[in-house]
């Protein structure tokens, strides 16, 4: 179950003909209320796609009636014409739903630098609007219509004892190093919550979930996470409790993104602890996550911890080389400035690998989720646009 | 010709048994003077190998009689025992040459986290000292003995009209993103120059050569570039003229490093111009050079400029998206905020690719040299230590 899990939402996913071969490529998620509270976080890349610029603008009101999403084209680096296409998409959705365009967010994902085929997209909006329903299947259709190189839909749903829930879907398989956030995700809830609290909860949740996934360092031009609250449960939530459940839902989606990222044969969790600040822990985790020599060693199931030491030594963070301890899958390989165990003692042959770096300097920690660098990644990404 | 080109130098390269299979693995370069002026630049990685710590210390005197280098073991992350091994190596060289250990620099390259096999290394020093000569072949032997995954020796030599010259060798094939400098290089000259001028010239030359090579972002624990001046030509050089020729020699070596880097099927020059500062130009060039999505697209000969736009947008530098122009192999693909030419017009099928990013904001420029990300890189690096 995903966006249609909470009460007050309908969804649809159709094949509009933006992608070749009749695959679903247009999704619509509608909030029927009674409330239409919303919040969003967006890519930090200076190069922002037209739909990001549009959605950032409409989100200033913290109110959304609908989100329209397409795959097959990112509508990024497309100039004023591309922005007009996004605007026209929102206008079209507004027209068929009888709402204002300012209440419609737009998300796009796919190849950068191509214009949207509007002659396919606009009729697709009609088709999507005509098929809107609140069923689980319709939620899955929407989650499917946003996929690009993903191999499967990513959905999550969490219920709360007090009678409300949070649902969501996400897509993302490459160009995946959110900050914030290298993919598209739409979350829904029937909780009653103020726009300010919703915004704060979303920022808190994404900071420790989507922002800690780093597959290839590639913060994209289109990253967007939106949360829509219908208030349909009639339950006014405690913001802290809402943040907790939202974080859990986001983390569920992030685990699915990690597992399905391009070419991944390993999922790698890099935990940095004993840091003087959380920022230091994140910086070190990220630099290890993005290091191609670490990533290829992990692909080869090779506990070559020297590469981890090399990578962390170039992080903009406080470290004391003689204090650092490095463990892989529970075996400490480096400690007190020298080899602690023979690397052969760490078995990295399974799909999941845990790297733990203990700086032994402070009290802060963070875990970055990553993957290996495989032939599959190279294969998939050397032939994407052509 | 390399380090034995300039007058006053002898070299040797022998198989000491540090590597398996009888490959050359120990090099010695000796400065017979009359002067022994020297300078060095070292890795900026916080994790520094024992030989780097040692050589930084001895270089404070700006005087070197000899450099001893080994491949097959980096002697990094080896604790106090590893430092003692480096010290003992310098002592051994000092003893056989009849000089002070404080006049001997040590360089190591190879796997991180392993101790040096001193029972092979120390007899190797005797063998190397016994075979020291000033011939071209002996220079090549030394250049060969430092190689790891390199497929060939890298040597350079430049003569000056006034009767002096500069020679050098370098090694480096992976973990290659100097700052300063992801590899080992020894340069020699028979020019007469003060220690201060030599140091300044080396810093100026490496800043625009070795520091602008970025294959995989992996600044290593052992990076060292040394320059030794014998004064044997009897010519007192103009420092500016010396810096010019030293830069040319370094650039020659860097081009060889770029061309021979692990798994490279393409050499890629990324020129960033119109930047508000040189630092901005370098930062953008580097982030594009390290981006796996750009690198895999280049491997596929795919002018997917959207990935270049994505990468530069995440650089810590000043950009105006609507002003940026991106060209590959002479064809402008993106300008004025939108597609400028069909990507099919840029032919990237050859081995060399030129990416030019014009920010159109200022007067500064820099070129970063890089390579693609290929199956060969993944293959080579997934099985290095095991």
UniProtKB/TrEMBL annotation, chains A, B:
Q: Which GO terms describe its molecular function?
A: L-glutamate N-acetyltransferase activity, acting on acetyl-L-ornithine as donor
Q: What is its EC number?
A: 2.3.1.35, 2.3.1.1
Q: In which pathway does it act?
A: Amino-acid biosynthesis; L-arginine biosynthesis; L-ornithine and N-acetyl-L-glutamate from L-glutamate and N(2)-acetyl-L-ornithine (cyclic): step 1/1; Amino-acid biosynthesis; L-arginine biosynthesis; N(2)-acetyl-L-ornithine from L-glutamate: step 1/4
Which EC class is this protein assigned?
A: transferase
For binding substrate, which residues are annotated in this chain's numbering? 148, 171, 182, 262, 381, 386
Q: Where is this site: Involved in the stabilization of negative charge on the oxyanion by the formation of the oxyanion hole?
A: 109-110
Q: Which UniProt keywords apply?
A: Acyltransferase, Amino-acid biosynthesis, Arginine biosynthesis, Autocatalytic cleavage, Cytoplasm, Multifunctional enzyme, Transferase
Residues of the active site: 182 (nucleophile)
Task: Tell where it localizes.
Answer: Cytoplasm
Which branch of life, at top level?
Bacteria
Q: Does the keyword Amino-acid biosynthesis apply?
A: yes
Q: How does it assemble?
A: Heterotetramer of two alpha and two beta chains.
Tell me, in a sentence or two, what this protein's role is: Catalyzes two activities which are involved in the cyclic version of arginine biosynthesis: the synthesis of N-acetylglutamate from glutamate and acetyl-CoA as the acetyl donor, and of ornithine by transacetylation between N(2)-acetylornithine and glutamate.
Task: Name the HAMAP family for this protein.
Answer: ArgJ
According to UniProt, the name of this protein is Arginine biosynthesis bifunctional protein ArgJ
Organism the protein comes from: Saccharopolyspora griseoalba
């Amino acid at each position: 179950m995903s966006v249609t899990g909470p009460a007050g939402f309908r969804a649809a996913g159709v094949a509009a003909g933006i992608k070749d071969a009749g695959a679903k490529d247009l999704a619509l998620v509608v909030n029927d209320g009674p409330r239409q509270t919303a919040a969003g976080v967006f890519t930090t890349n200076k190069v922002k796609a037209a739909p990001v610029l549009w959605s950032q603008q409409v989100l200033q009101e913290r109110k959304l009636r609908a989100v329209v999403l397409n795959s097959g084209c990112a509508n990024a680096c497309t100039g004023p014409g591309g922005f007009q296409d996004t605007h026209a998409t929102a206008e079209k959705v507004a027209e068929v739903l009888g709402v204002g365009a300012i209440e419609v967010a737009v998300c796009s994902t796919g190849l950068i630098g191509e214009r949207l085929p509007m002659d396919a997209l606009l009729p697709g909006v009609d088709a999507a609007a005509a098929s809107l329903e609140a069923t689980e299947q319709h939620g899955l259709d929407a989650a499917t219509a946003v996929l690009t190189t993903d191999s499967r839909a990513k959905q999550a749903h969490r219920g709360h004892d007090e009678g409300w829930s949070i649902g969501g879907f996400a897509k993302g398989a490459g160009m995946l190093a959110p900050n914030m956030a290298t993919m598209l995700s739409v979350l829904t809830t029937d909780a009653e919550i103020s726009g300010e609290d919703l915004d704060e909860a979303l920022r808190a949740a994404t900071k420790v979930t989507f922002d800690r996934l780093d597959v290839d360092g590639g913060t994209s031009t289109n990253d967007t996470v939106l949360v829509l609250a219908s208030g349909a449960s009639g339950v006014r939530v405690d913001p802290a409790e809402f943040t907790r459940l939202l974080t859990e839902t986001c983390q569920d989606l992030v685990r699915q993104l990690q597992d399905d990222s391009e070419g991944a044969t390993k999922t790698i969790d890099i935990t940095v602890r004993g840091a003087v600040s959380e920022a230091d822990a994140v910086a070190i985790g990220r630099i290890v996550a993005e290091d191609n020599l670490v990533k290829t060693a992990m692909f080869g199931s090779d506990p070559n911890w020297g590469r981890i030491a090399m990578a962390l030594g170039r992080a903009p963070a406080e470290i004391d080389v003689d204090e650092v301890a490095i463990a892989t899958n529970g075996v400490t390989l480096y400690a007190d400035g020298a080899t602690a165990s023979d690397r052969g003692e760490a078995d990295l042959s399974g799909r999941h690998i845990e790297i733990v770096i203990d700086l032994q300097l402070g009290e802060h920690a963070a875990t970055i989720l990553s993957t290996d660098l495989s032939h599959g990644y190279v294969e998939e990404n050397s032939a994407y646009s052509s």
